[in-house]
Amino acid sequence: MVCPQDVQGLVDLEGGKAGFTAKLDSFFTIKDLPKEVNGNASGFIGQYAHGNEPSHHVTYLYDYVGQPWKTQLYVSKVLRELYNNSFSGYSGNEDCGQMSSWYIFSAMGFYPVNPASGKYEIGSPVLKSATIHLANGKTFKMTAKNVSDQNFYIQSVKLNGKPYNKPYILHSDIEKGATLEFVMGDKPNKKWGQDLTGLND
């Protein structure tokens, strides 16, 4: 489950949105048979192994097929179950800072599936607020109202005070200085995140 540079191409290879969604659903739920488990992998959710860094983008791929609430479910599950503040707080090896980088991005509610694209796909924040002080002197702030272990589904989003229905934000939005506001709840809002305009460009 790779190919972050051409997610739409991967979706097409799997028969479109329905086929790709079915593949993702099975990927996160089917259990390996004992003889098929990779002894070097860890942090399993179905066949997804969070301890294997090259698959870190996969939790965000539901955004590309109009089912962002499933991205919210699995990102939240990883954040809350596969990280802790003990001496063994990671579910895998911290190669070049990737395990902590995934957490920091995802805790704020977004992650770069393809870092060269200039886009950050939206997941499920765990932080109530965070502020990034940019090198250009501007600030980017995110807030998450009502966020909790139970309230991990996005109900609505505002970018700079305006309703926002895209399952991603742009790097250029961050660079300009912006405020990203999440409202969270305990049930998925399947109407949010349906504007896929520009996601696969």
Structure in a nutshell:
With 201 residues, the chain is of the alpha+beta class. It is 25% helix and 21% strand. It is built from five helices and ten strands, in the order H-H-E-E-H-H-E-E-E-E-E-E-E-H-E.
What would you note in describing this structure?
The protein has 201 residues and is α+β, with helices and mostly antiparallel strands. The protein has one domain (4-185): GH92 mannosidase domain (GH92 mannosidase fold, 2-Layer Sandwich), CATH 3.30.2080. The protein contains five helices and ten strands. The strands form three sheets. Strands 5-6-10-7-8 form a five-stranded mixed sheet. Strands 3-4-9 form a three-stranded antiparallel sheet. β7 and β8 (162-163) form a beta hairpin. 31% of the residues are buried. The model has no long low-confidence stretch (mean pLDDT 89).
